[in-house]
């Protein structure tokens, strides 16, 4: 059974180099002639290990690395998930509990008017919890001034990707700014609810002739709600998929609503296989939109489901 | 892609019989001669469906059935998980949030001294939340009187299975009681922590010559901590595995500790495949023992992980 290979991996990861029997084995007996050759310090160590207190003194094996370890893609959380929780400490505590280390920073956690000192303090908090703020957004941009502001903010935050929703007529301006700043710009698609960028095909058609650093944040829930297949779209538009919003929805219709990953119509084993097939190197960021006043169990269930799928499709 | 088969299943389950386009299609135009043959009531219905309010009036598609639907095994929760939460309402609310419907009843939720009226009220609460109390226990039994008490309690609760830990020398008495009551008796194994029933092999050796209704609650975490492979043991002892405590542990040693499903050394895809291979018809009950003062996210992550594995191994 694979459990033993698994165990071995775990023990190696945790710094154990040999199998620890569940029931402590009998003390190995040495012939007197051998005893002379065993340094006293080793005898003392052996006696300590054989004592009734041994369990308390030996290091306990820890958790295994998350199953996405070794995959090209990463698992993250979109800050929007915590819309009702603007205290970044609570966000980080939640991320720590679900062992997730990538955050797409939303402005209600780090306002766009933040000073450089506030930004530095924010990053220090993230770092202390082992979290990387890998992008900012989504940010709606309805004028050149708003685009300027967003790019300046992203630069000061120090990320290399902006998730944005620019009016269609501002795309040429975004193109110029991307060339100026060298950022990736991922356009967030939003299904049938708003008029611009309903799905991946629409984003693709608007960006395919622009700078290759302009692409999409593929929101798999909204793409589905607009009648599209996000797994097929990930393959089709892979060269322009820079970020991914992970969620599930109840139906491929405007009436379909967002809920815990695994409870809707999106087929996550297919999605994970496609992430591998296209070699996606970005973050799959959970954007959990159900029970936003108490999203914690939904976040945990969603991350758990995704990791179960990742493990089972290896 | 399988998403469309999935969608179709979802729509059928939810009572939708045809695909709902994401963007409402243009009203179909009828020739005047056809109009005469369309009853006015249908025209009225069509007009209503075409109005801007249609979305609000159409039923929204709901969640898909949990992925274990159609499997022979069930997913449940062991009451011990809620050791710090003796209010059954909170237990049921949590179960509802994770869409789990089988509970192994612990005495701190339904005391063994409960009157028949209290038992009836308890069952009514469970029923209102769609939960079945499928067994009672684990109950430690150190005398014939304690065995009598436990069997009487189980009978009054109305379950057909007792999860128990009888002293070894009381097994002949358990055998007589099982024949008298017709219950299944699942012995809970507990790894290297206590002296009796450390693993599945030990239970098997003690029950294999007794009534076939005496078997085990295979605690896969404790079996692992005693150096055994619970997937292999499920196969070996399948005829006597009546209940299963689902958990993960960090190591195949006494020092290994319980944590969220998927974070330890147990290989759940193998477990799920074995549940199918042996045709296990019982409940896999999550016994979550980490963060017992705040177990909710861990419960959700564990159930999510298991369901992700079930979906991905279909």
Give me the secondary-structure topology.
Two copies of one chain form a homodimer.
Chain A: H1 2-13, H2 32-35, H3 40-50, H4 54-57, E1 74-78, H5 88-97, E2 102-105, H6 116-128, E3 132-141, H7 144-157, E4 161-166, H8 171-181, E5 184-188, H9 200-207, E6 214-219, H10 220-225, H11 230-236, E7 241-246, E8 248-249, E9 258-259, H12 268-277, E10 283-286, H13 296-312
Parallel strand pairs in A: 1-2, 1-10, 2-3, 3-4, 4-5, 5-6, 6-7, 7-10
Antiparallel strand pairs in A: 8-9
Helix pairs in contact in A: 7-8, 11-12
Query: What's the CATH topology name of the largest domain in chain A?
Result: TIM Barrel
Strand portion of chain A, in percent?
15-25%
What is the overall silhouette of chain A? globular
**Secondary-structure element series of chain A:** HHHHEHEHEHEHEHEHHEEEHEH
Largest sheet of chain A: 8 strands, parallel, barrel
Under CATH, the homologous superfamily of the largest domain in chain A reads Divalent-metal-dependent TIM barrel enzymes
Please give the alpha-carbon distance between the first and last residues of chain A.
15 Å
The total of beta strands of chain A comes to 10
Rg result of chain A: 25 Å
Oligomer: homodimer
How many structural domains of chain A? 2
CATH class of the largest domain in chain A: Alpha Beta
